[in-house]
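Exercise 7. Given the encoded structure of a 439-residue chain, write a plausible sequence.
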């Protein structure tokens, strides 16, 4: 079921992005009275799942569930319709329109994707707002994971700054971003009330960006073990535990912090354990059954979470800031790939890698965050000056506007073939990387 959820989220996300991207080409084409022969969600080689002719346009759904396209009359595109291009130009064709009109038609898709990314981020801020933990509220510091240990971090540390950038929010991802994207060289941490400077190892970026380490947190908040509620009919309640207890140990192992408590329960899942606790100043011990999931039926106290709500006027600039920040980070990451600091094989992937980014339980906040990010990336990649992408057409249209010289149809056919081969090569390479990771 988890894989089905991931697949459905990927298809839904790409469908939204593709339909709106192609609508960005379709609408200006119609405004300039250019005939659009096809508008397809997904690709339809040999046959389609659905098609309907409405006016001059055939609307349809293909059977290969990735991508989509609009076929604009009189345009050298991925359809490579040479017969149409041999005929005299007609007034309703793309090639008959003025250069500035063709330019607007071509940039319509990426414009929609940039705007869509900003709007989704803005709507997320408007609907959900922004929640975070202040560094000062994580008063017991952190629990360090294996990658955090390579940085020299210890349990109980608090990160104060990374590369001189203050860490006012307790967030492992922010630390990752400063080290990987902005190449921070040191961390300033608070340890037992003292400030300590930790240099970032020279090989750390290569380690944390390995595919197998993707998404791994450097640390988690360390939280005191405090019972919020004993769940009715749970094994803890059946064993006589009540609200207000303070658990001291499980089978003699101290449980001062929540991560220690959870680890011990995971080790003992499906078994019975002796739990020592304090209730009304009395120290007691009782046997408790631990479920196969490693739980006993208690709710734990959490950290204080700060929350910021945004109005419409505040959400839009926040959405724009998030979009620009995300794109800037991606551009820096690409730069590090080209410089060799980050290995391409660890960072690139096909649609299968993208699918794993979604939440298997279908979290709408995660879904829209990924969809907004993909929209920004789709706009950026489509603007690259590669023939067969929107950016390739834009380059030739700008050349035409500046020089007044129109590239020949034969030239456009050749460069589009080359661009198509380059894109297919990249897609096969990315798919090959995913296949190799499975094995």
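Solution.
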């Amino acid at each position: 079921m988890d894989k089905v959820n991931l697949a459905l989220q990927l298809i839904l996300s790409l469908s939204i992005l593709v339909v709106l991207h192609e609508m960005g080409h379709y609408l200006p084409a119609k405004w300039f009275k250019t005939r659009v022969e096809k508008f397809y969600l997904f690709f339809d080689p040999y046959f389609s799942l659905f098609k309907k002719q409405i006016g001059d346009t055939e609307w349809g759904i293909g059977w290969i569930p990735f991508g989509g396209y609009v076929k604009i009359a009189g345009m050298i595109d991925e359809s490579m319709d040479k017969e149409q291009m041999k005929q005299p130009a007609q007034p309703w064709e793309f090639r008959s329109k003025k250069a500035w009109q063709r330019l607007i038609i071509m940039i319509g898709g990426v414009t929609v994707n940039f705007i869509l990314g900003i709007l989704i981020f803005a709507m997320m801020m408007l609907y959900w707002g922004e929640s975070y933990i202040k560094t000062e509220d994580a008063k017991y510091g952190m629990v360090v994971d294996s990658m955090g240990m390579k940085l020299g971090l210890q349990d109980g540390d608090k990160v104060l700054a990374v590369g001189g950038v203050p860490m006012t929010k307790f967030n492992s991802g922010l630390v990752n971003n400063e080290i990987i994207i902005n190449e921070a060289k040191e961390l300033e941490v608070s340890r037992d009330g003292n400030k300590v400077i930790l240099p970032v190892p020279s090989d750390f970026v290569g380690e944390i960006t390995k595919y197998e380490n993707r998404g791994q947190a450097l640390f988690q908040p360390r939280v005191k073990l405090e019972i919020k509620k004993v769940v009715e009919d749970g094994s803890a309640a059946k064993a006589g535990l009540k609200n207000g207890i303070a658990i001291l140990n499980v089978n003699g192992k101290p449980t001062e912090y929540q991560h220690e408590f959870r680890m011990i329960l995971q080790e003992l899942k499906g078994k019975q354990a002796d739990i020592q606790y304090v209730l009304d100043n009395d120290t007691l011990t009782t046997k408790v059954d631990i479920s196969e999931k490693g739980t006993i039926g208690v709710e734990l106290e959490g950290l204080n979470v700060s929350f910021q709500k945004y109005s419409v006027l505040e959400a839009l600039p926040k959405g724009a800031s998030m979009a620009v920040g995300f794109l800037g980070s991606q551009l820096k990451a690409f730069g590090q790939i080209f410089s060799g600091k980050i290995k391409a094989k660890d960072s690139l992937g096909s649609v299968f890698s993208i699918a794993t980014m979604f939440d298997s339980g279908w979290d709408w906040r995660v879904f829209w965050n990924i969809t907004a990010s993909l929209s920004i990336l789709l706009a950026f990649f489509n603007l690259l000056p590669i023939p067969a992408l929107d950016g390739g057409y834009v380059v030739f249209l700008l050349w035409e506007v500046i020089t007044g010289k129109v590239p020949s149809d034969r030239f456009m056919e050749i460069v589009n073939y080359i661009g198509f081969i380059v894109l297919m090569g990249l897609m096969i390479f990315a798919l090959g990387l995913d296949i190799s990771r499975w094995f």
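Remark. The mean pLDDT is 88. Students should compare their own answers with the one above.
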